[in-house]
Amino acid sequence: MYSYEERIKAVKLYIKYDQCISDTIRELGYPSKNALKQWYEEYVQIGEIREKKDSYQKYSKDQIKIAVDYYLEHGRSLSRTIRAVGYPTRETLTKWIDELAPNERKVRIKRSGMLQLSQKQKNEVVLEFCVCEDTAEAVAKKYKVSRGSLYKLKKQLLGDESIITMKKLNQTKTSDDRNELLSEVEALKKELYKKQMEIDILNKAAEIIKKDKGINLQRMTNCEKTELIDALRIKYPLYELLKMTGIPKSSYFYQKKIQEQPEKYSELRKTVKSVFDSNRKCYGYRRVYSAIKNKGQVVSEKVIRRIMKEEQIIVSVKKKRKYNSYKGEITPAVENVIARDFHAESPNKKWLTDLTEFHIPAGKVYLSPIIDCFDGMVVSWTIGTSPNAELVNTMLTDAIAVLSEKERPVVHTDRGCHYRWNGWISAMENAQLIRSMSKKGCSPDNSACEGFFGRLKNEMFYGQSWKGVTIESFMYELDEYLKWYNNSRIKMSLDGMSPILYRRSLGLAV
């Protein structure tokens, strides 16, 4: 069906080219000769070409539905439908069917399709028809030939007929030609079998190593290749799979023997899982290794890492959100005495402090700790629901209480308002402690304390559901974590010991 614009364009070009049909059709690519003549005669008679009305305007929706339903229910024949209901044209009915019942219209395959195939293509068609699992109709549709032509070609190439008619040469094939053709078919079958085996191997390899793209059999371990071969031995012979995967027969049976032996690290796997779970699921493989080593069990760190990878024991990490306590320059700032040197030769030489916020469904909770730069121990802490002066001053008072008479540590803070109020300044001066402050908005100046907050939230706060937890319950959990942090949590920088154990190992009073 051509639009009005296409028809009028063709007629005008036909007139422009002195009514030369071939030149007009060659340039436009349409229509047929008879159609062009018909359009031209209509244009000459009435001076224009009538616009065709939409079929939907000519027929009601009920009439259209009746025609389409009859077509679907009575053999899907256009001719039968038009004879029965008395309308419309084949083109219009085809359009109705495609719009109201997509993919339901029967498409007839041209019988001339087989004539367009070369002899090599015909061989491939017959080979696929013989060895593949698709139906004859599917193969015929793929190559755009009829089912009858497909069976006829198969009979010609592989049947009992001794004489095969060749369209161009019109001569009889000899028995040698027939044997050569059969040999070619057999070679194609073997090639198809080999390709199918390669596809099956790659698909199964993707399942085993959990990788969809970039599968390389040469990079697979012998253990993975053995698992792959075992999965496909039902379908393919062993010697073919060994050849395709590139693993020697001796290596294959060696891996089979190893797999049949009891799991060497079955108990260790349970121990690793237990250590991980009992330490708030925040230990990586290094600290899990140290914890197991401290129990007196000798094992390689690489084994721990492999077990955690195989068991998918992973520490969840999320980005922290920092509480900001800056309220402006309330009192003069002091010098940055620490100067980003967070190393201390002994306890109570350098202290760090800051405030952090925990936001749970029940409300907000604030933590104010003092961290000792010597070993990262939390010297004192206070937990509350308001970031006020009482919270930080109480923490400072508790920390001062653990100092000996001669200890005067440097206390480093940011420029938050809590550390610039008179109460904080007076307490520092009375205890003869040294004040130190970060630059304005410069978190790296107090990065060691920020790092403590990051570890705390990753290990205790993030990745947990606090829905239904009260403020009091959360404050209790936080307090328990800080006790565990000092007494039990392993630090690799302390030779795999907790801060309390490390101090005891040095003979320091705790």
From TrEMBL:
**Span of domain Integrase catalytic:** 343-507
Query: By its UniProt entry, which InterPro entries does this protein fall under?
Result: Homeodomain-like_sf (IPR009057), HTH-like_dom (IPR025948), Integrase_cat-core (IPR001584), RNaseH-like_sf (IPR012337), RNaseH_sf (IPR036397), Transpos_IS3 (IPR048020), Transposase_IS3/IS150/IS904 (IPR050900)
Does the keyword Coiled coil feature in the UniProt annotation?
Answer: yes
Q: Where are the transmembrane segments?
A: none
Please name the Pfam families in this protein's record. Answer: HTH_21, rve, rve_2
**Molecular function GO terms recorded:** nucleic acid binding
Keyword rRNA-binding (UniProt)? no
**Key words of the record:** Coiled coil
Q: Which GO terms describe its biological process?
A: DNA integration
Q: Coiled coil: which residue ranges? A: 171-205
Query: Would you tell me the protein name for this molecule?
Result: IS3 family transposase
Q: From which source organism is this entry?
A: Acetobacterium wieringae
**Upper lineage ranks?**
Bacteria, Bacillati, Bacillota, Clostridia, Eubacteriales
